[in-house]
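Why does this matter for the project? Reviewers at the last site visit asked to see concrete outputs rather than summary tables. In response, this paragraph embeds two records directly. Each consists of the residue sequence and, immediately after it, the corresponding structure tokens. Nothing has been edited or filtered.
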Amino acid sequence: MSRLNTWEYRSPDIHRQQPPLPASSADRDLTPMPSGPEALLTSKEASQILKIHPKVLERMAKRGEVPALKVGKFWRYRASTLDAWITSRLQSGRQPCRMPTSF
């Protein structure tokens, strides 16, 4: 869930001096976050990113085809790891766009 920040342009007023405004919550959101654990995505969230069904993604995770972590009975995914995995799959020339079929 992202929060939209609205910005206003205030023209400088030379005749009137105002004390600096205290840091609002919007200003605090712009500071870098301290390094900590990355939020994990659920199967539903990750499957929406990859545009596949959640059960297909879980089967891929079970087979080790996609980087995932099993927490209890649920699969979880890191967004940064999924992004790196997608990038590596795109740069790899080993996966064909079409699978050869023989009838």
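We now turn to the second protein, recorded in exactly the same manner.
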Amino acid sequence: MRRIHIIYTIAIVATLLIAACGNNSRRDEIEQRKEALKRHQDSSLLAAQQELAFVDSTLEAVKVEYEQKKAEVERHRAELTATAEELTALTMLGLRRDSLQAQWNLLGAKIRYIRQKQSESESEGELREE
């Protein structure tokens, strides 16, 4: 009878030790995933900001070029000397401007989304620490 108690006690202790080790392992995995997510968000944010800076400068240059070309084409229209090539070039420039504007808007939304998720993660972490 005493021997059965010892075996049960050893089995229970072994089970508790295994369960305790498993929880630490899971906690470590969760913390590693949180850190990986934070690094991924940081690198994605940096990449989006760099791309936005490039798109922004390109967009500004295209806007200026479009306005100059538009003024020239309007002048030629008034003189009735506008060519099909000029009108096509103006239309293509307008399409490029609109495309860059859409890309600029998308990158801005992406940056706002990443920042929102980062702040949610930080506030969630603060709540858990309390």
